[in-house]
Amino acid sequence: MNFPLWIQNLAIFLLAASMGSAFWFVARSPRWQRATRRFRNDKVGLLSACVISVYLFIGLLDSVQIPAGPHRDRTALDWMFHGIKRERTYSAPLASTSYSATRPQPLEGRHVLGTDVLGKDVLLQTLKACRTALIIGGLTSMIYIPLGTLFGVLAGYYRRWVDDVIQYIYSTLATIPSILLLIAIIMALGKGLPQISIALGVTAWVGLCRLIRGETMRQSQRAYVEAARALGQSHRQIICRHILPNVMHLVIINFILGFSGFVMTESILSYLGVGVPVGTPSWGQMIDSARMELAREPAVWWNLGASACALFFLVLALNLLGDALRRAFDPRGSSVSVSR
Amino acid sequence: MALRILYLTVACALLAGCSNNPHPPPFREKRADGTPWQASYRPFPDDPRSLDPQFSYDTLGHAVVSLVYEEMLEYHPLKTDPYELIPCLADGMPEPISGSDGTLAYRFRIKRGVYFHDDPCFSSGKGRELVAADMAYAFNRIADPKVECPVLSTLAEFVVGLQERNDEAKRTKSFDYSKPFPGIRVIDDHTFDILLLKPFPQLLYWMAMPFTAPVPREAVEYYDGRSHDGTIRQQFKFKPVGTGPFRLVEWKKGLSLRLIRNDNYTATRFPTEGWPAADAARYQAMAGKPIPFLDEVDFRIIRESIPAWLLFRQGYVEAAGLGKDVFDTAVSARQELTPEYQARGVWLYKDAEPSTFYFQFNMQNPVVGKNRKLRQAISAVYDVDLEIDIFMNGIYLNAQQLLPPGVYGYQADFKDPYRQHNVEQARQLLAEAGYPNGYDAKTGKQLQLTLDLTVDDAESRQLAEFEKEQIEKLGISVKVEENLWATQQDKMDRGNFQFTASGWNADYPDPENFFFLFYGKNIPPEGNNNSRYANPEFDRLFEKMRAMENSPERLDLIHRLNAILTEDCPMIPLYHPVAFHLSQPWAPRVVLNPLVSNGLKYTQIDVAMRKQKQVEWNRKPMWPLAGIAAFLAAAGMFAYRWSQRHG
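^ inputs. structure came back:
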C-alpha cells in the first residue's frame, strides 16, 4: 500500500521522535537515574552510542522521501549523493575506467569505494544497507521483546502449569536448529523485510523469555513483592508496577545485544540466498556477492571490504553499548555476565 | 644404526614417491607395437545417473554413453553451418520410402562387421555382430514403461506402434519383448525400415541421439542387478555394452570412470573433408585414418570448478571450461589468451552453442498477454549488450531471433525492429500501449509487472536486479519473484507467471525444435509452449514447415514464422551462449561441432609433450625448504649458544 509522501515522512519523524522521547524519559526517570549517571561516565559506552546514532541517522536519511519530479521520489540519502553518476559495471576505488572484459570505459565520476557489478556506488550502497539492517533489527525487536517479556514474566510469576506450558513451547522451539527454522519460515512466508523480521522474531524470543522467567522468579520472592501481595494488590498490578520495571534493564541490554545478532543473521540469511528481496541493499548480499568477486582476476575486494567494515562497526558498537548498559545497571558496580 | 639407515631409506623412498600427479597409472604403459599408450584425463563434474542409452537424458550421461554406444547416424564433427548428419552405424544415409498403401518409412542399411564389445554377457565372451533385430529391440525398450524413456511421447507421435506397445504394457503390467516391434520392419539382418504415422523428417536427428542406439538384449538380461552363483551382477544402467569406440572397464563412484579403446571398432573413420582451410595440414594428416586414436579415457570426477582449474594449470587434465571466476585469468579483454597461457601453448576454443535464451510472456495473462505494444516496449528498452558485457564476459551473441546460428533458417543479417535498445522507441510504444511514462492512462496508477526468475545464488540475484532495473527504465515497476529452479518450472507448467526468463538448447539443429515452443497444440500439459502462445496462422505454417525436407520453400516458411514471432513478441530473444574451453598443447581439440558429444574418438594426444610439460609446470620451489632449513639451523644455533651460556 502506498501512502502519500507526507504521511510516510510524518510517520518516520513520529517514530524517531517517540524513540527519542522514550530515551529522554527513561534517562530522567528517578528509578534509572543512577544507571544514567554511571552511563554518562562510561566513555566507551558513550562513543558506542554515538556510532550507533550515526547509523540511525543514516537509516533515517534513507527513509525520508523527497519528491524528485513527476511520479518519482527519492530518499534524502539519494539526494545527497545525486551528483554521483551510475557506471556500467565494476570500477575500483578512485579508478578512472570501468572494469569490463571487453569494453573498459572512462568513468562518469570518481567513486571513493568503487562501484559494484551494476555500476552502483559502493559507498552509497553500504550506507543504504544501514536502513535495511535497522529495519530488520527494529522490527524484529518489536516482535520478540513483547513476546519474550510477556511469556517470561507470566512463566516466572505464575509458575505451575503456566510455567510448564511456556517451557514446553520454548523447549520445543529451541530443539529445532534456528537457521533451519528461519529458512523454513521464510520459505513459507516469502521473501521481504517484514517476513524476515517475523521469522527472526518467532525464533528469537526464547532466549529473552528464559532470562526474564528466571529474573521474575527471583524478584517475585523478594520482600517488596510479598509486601505488595500483603497489601492486596492484584496480580496485574504486581506484574506491571513491580516486576516489569525491575526486569526492564535486562530487556534493554538484551535488545541492544540482540539487535546486533539480527543484523548479522540477516547477513547470514542473505548469504544463504533467503535474505532480503532483489534490489534491496544489504550487507549480507554484498558479502555473498564477494564469494565470486574475490575469485575474479583481478579480485573485486571493495564490495566485501565496505560491507564487512560497516557491519563490523555496527555490531561492535552495539556490543560495547550492551556491555556499558550492563555495567550501568549493575547495582554492585561490578561485572556480572548477562546472557541472551 | 642399521635400523636408522633402514628408516632413512624408507623415508627417502616415500619422499621420492611423492608427486603432484593425482591420477593412478594408466591401464598400460605401452601399446602392443611399443608406441606410447595414449591415456587422456578429463575432468568430470559428477557421476552420471545412468548409462542406459534409452533412459539417459543429461549431459553427463551422454558424455559417456556417446563413447560406448553409437547410433545409425551422427553429426559431422567439423561442419557447423549448417550442421550435417552423416552415417555412423548405417551404411549410407537412409532412404525415405512411401509404400503403395500410403505408409511412410525410412530404410536403413546397417554396416557389416560392426560388433558389440566383448563382454561376459555373450555366450563366448566375444561381442556378436550388430543386426537389424537389435534396432527393433532398442525401440521396444523405448516403448517399455519400465525403461522410462524420456522421449517416448515425442517419438510415439510419429513412429508406428510405440504408443500401442506402451499402452499395452501399462495395461498388462508386463512388456513382451518376444513380440516384434510394429514400427520396425526387418528386411534382413542388415536392413530395416522405420515406419511412420506421418511425415517426420526430424526422425533422422533422432537417429543420431543415444535414445535410438542399438543395445544387445543379452546385456540387458545379463546385467540385472541380482545375485547369480553368489556374485552380484551390476545393473545394465551401470554396465553399458555397445558398439562404440570405447568400453567402460571401471567406474569408481565419486572418483572416476575409465574407458578403454574398443579394439573391434570399425564403424567410422576420421572424416576426409569438411575441415577449415586454415587447418588443412593438421586435418589432412588424420583424414581417413581408423579411430579412436586414444587408448584410454579417464574421466576424473572433480565436483568443484577451482580444483579442476588448478589441475588443468598443473597439466594433469587435458581440458577445462572457462567459468566466470577464472575467465579473466586466461582470456584477455580482446578475447584472446593472456600472454601466460599463450606461452604455455594452450588452445582456446569458442563454441557457439545451439541455444537461445529469452524472456517469455504468459500470453494468457490479461496485462502482458493482451498488449502487444507493451511487450514490444519491454523488448526495445532492454540493453542485451550491456547484460552480455557485465554477466557473460562479453562473449555471448546478441540474439535477434529464436533460432541460434547454425540451425537451418537462421538469418545472420536479421534485425528485430523491437530489439535495438532504443529507449525513445520503447517509451513511444509504451505510450501507445496505454501506459505513458509507465502509468495507466485510465487509472493513473503505475504499471506493476511481476518477473519470475530462478534466483539461487549471488550471480543470479545480481542478474535479476539488472533485469529489473533495465525494464524499470520505462517507468513501470517490476517485482522480481525469486524462485528455486523446481518452483520456477512448476509455475511455468501451470502458467502461474506474468513473464519470465527461459532458454532452449537444441535437441537437434532443426527449426522445428525451436518453433514448437510456440506451437498452439503444445500448450502445457501437452507440451513446452509455456508462453501459451496461440496463433492459428503460426500453427498452420508450423505444421507445414515441420513436415518438409529442407528446401527454399521451407526456408520461406521459417522466415515467415520468425516474422510472426518478432511482431507478436511472445518472447524477447536475449542471447545465444558461447562457451570458452581450453585444451592443453598436447591435446588440441579436433571436433568443431558442439552437438558432437563423442569428440574424444577423434582426439589424440602427444604423450611425450605432456610428460615434459608436467615436469616443467610442477617444479617444486626450493625456497620453502631452504627457509625451513635456515630457520631450524638458526633455532639450533640459538639453543646451542643458550645451553653454552647457561650451562
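The CA atoms of residues 223 and 239 of chain B lie 7 Å apart. The mean pLDDT of chain B is 90.
thumbs up if we can close this ticket
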